[in-house]
Design goal:
rod-shaped; 3-stranded antiparallel β-sheet; 27% strand; 2 helices; alpha+beta; single chain
């Protein structure tokens, strides 16, 4: 009985060892398949990108218009226009900020007319014209003249 069992085991091992296992090799190919769903998604993304770009352009235009509106206060009538004079030698600047370029120095006691008043950097600035240069002077450096 032991010999039969031993013989069967040997026969099974011989049968299994005679089977040649072949390893199959697969090649990976990157093939992109367009489907109706992909096209719809791409069109949706393109439409969304165009809409976002259009919204950004509209926002920029709105911001520019709002900025111009804030900076363009309607000038007063000449009969009602405020006049100031410089208290000391003062800088006329291109924009209403102390960090901006100085166009010209305005001597003390020079009368100026207000084109508009602008709030910037928590200060009030007067837009005026002096010696063919239009710019800004801080209001606290001026003294109002009564007509």
């Amino acid at each position: 009985m032991k010999i039969k069992l031993l013989f069967l085991i040997c026969l099974i091992c011989l049968g299994l060892s005679s089977c040649n296992k072949e390893v199959e090799q697969y090649e990976s190919k990157n093939i992109q398949v367009d489907s109706v769903f992909n096209k719809a998604e791409n069109q949706s993304k393109e439409n969304q990108n165009q809409q976002n770009q259009q919204d950004q352009n509209n926002k920029k235009q709105d911001d520019k218009a709002q900025q111009q509106t804030q900076q363009q206060a309607s000038p007063s009538n000449h009969t009602n226009q405020k006049k100031f004079k410089t208290v000391d030698t003062t800088n006329l600047r291109r924009n209403p900020t102390t960090n901006d370029e100085v166009l010209v120095s305005v001597p003390a006691s020079v009368e100026i007319e207000v084109i508009q008043e602008v709030n910037s950097e928590n200060e009030v600035w007067i837009k005026t014209k002096y010696n063919n240069s239009e710019g800004f002077i801080r209001k606290d450096l001026l003294e109002e003249i009564n007509n």
